[in-house]
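Q: My labmate handed me this sequence with no annotations at all. I'd like to see what the chain might look like in three dimensions before we decide whether it's worth expressing. Could you predict it?
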Amino acid sequence: MNTPQSQLIGWGSLIAAAGVSYYYARQNINERRKAQEFAGARPSEKLDWRARIAQQEQKAAAGEGSSSTPAAGQVDPSKSGGPSAPK
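A: Here is what I predict for the chain of 87 residues:
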């Protein structure tokens, strides 16, 4: 069985490895975010969900003429396959 000392060493090494991994992963993530923001691929402002949806709708409306697919939640009646009018 494990002695208290071996359990302490095991947990200590696990926590130390996790801390080191977190540190390097966080550095990498921050560097990637800075590079994306510098390239213009990442917006610098934080948006709540309402503002994000409004922004997506504006982009969809701006590109509406070039897209042949309906927006999410809309059904094209010519492609629905169902009856055209209920009887």
